[in-house]
Each structure stands twice: as structure tokens, then as C-alpha cells.
Amino acid sequence: xxxxxxxxxxxxxxxxxxxxxxxxxxxxxxxxxSQAVENHRASIQKSIEDSDLMKKNAADxxxxxxxxxxxxxxxxDGILKNAENTAKAFENKTKSEIDALVQxxxxxxxxxxxxxxxxxxxxxxxxxxxxxxxxxxKQVIRALENDKSLHRKFINDFINEIDGLEV
Length: 167
Prior knowledge:
This protein is mainly alpha-helical. The chain has helices at residues 6-11, 13-31, 33-70, 72-146, 148-164. It has one domain.
């Protein structure tokens, strides 16, 4: 039978459990546990929403990267063709500049050769003229030494020519 004495009631587990639950509820009310649990739940919910947004942004970014990677071979081909065209243009420009420089050097060289040739001809003519004068001088001296009357004849002819000059 059921003994409902005050001593049994105080020692009963059921009563102790009810008192303990009451104390916990009072402490929870005083410490505002429900509000803290609600704040924690809201921060967890916000973290979940933020992670969903980040997941969506990452998926969009992945799609953009995949699209840009699809066009990468064509872009690389375009860059390579542009670089080849630039190199060819530079090569053609360089070739034309080198050709112009070669033509200029050739023209300068020809002018220098012509000037040296004229100078050499001038020296040859001068040396030939000097040699001719020396040979003629020697011949005149020899002729004068062999024939003394020739010497007088040349002096008289020279004096006659000076007299014939009008001053």
C-alpha cells in the first residue's frame, strides 16, 4: 500500500525530481537561458545563411572560371598570333633599316674611293710632271754642255722675247 507520510514523501525520488526541476526552471528564468539559447540559435542560423551565400558565390565564381577557361585556348592563340605579327613587323622594319644603312655605307665608300682615286691621279700627274721637268732639265743641261753656242742663242732669244712684250 501506499504510504503517504511526510517522511516518505521527503525521501521519495519523485518529489526530489520535481523540486530539482523547479529549481532549474527558476535558475534558467533568472539567467535568461531562453534568450541566450535564442541568440545562439539566431547566430547559428546566420552562419548557415552566410555559408549558403558563400557556397552560391563560390559556385558562380567556379562557373565564371570555367567559362574563361573555355576561351583560354583561343585567347592564347590570339596572343601568339599577335606576338608573331609584331615580331615579323619588327623583323621587316629592321631589315629595311639595315638595307638603308648598307646603301648609305656603299655610297659613302664609293665617294671615298673616288676621292682617293682623284688624289692618287693628282699625285701621279704631279710626280710625272716633276720627273718630266727633271728629264728635260738634264737634257737641256747636257745639250748646253755639248754646244756652248746654244747657251748664247737661248739668252738672245729670251732677251728678244722680253723686248717684244708690252708692259
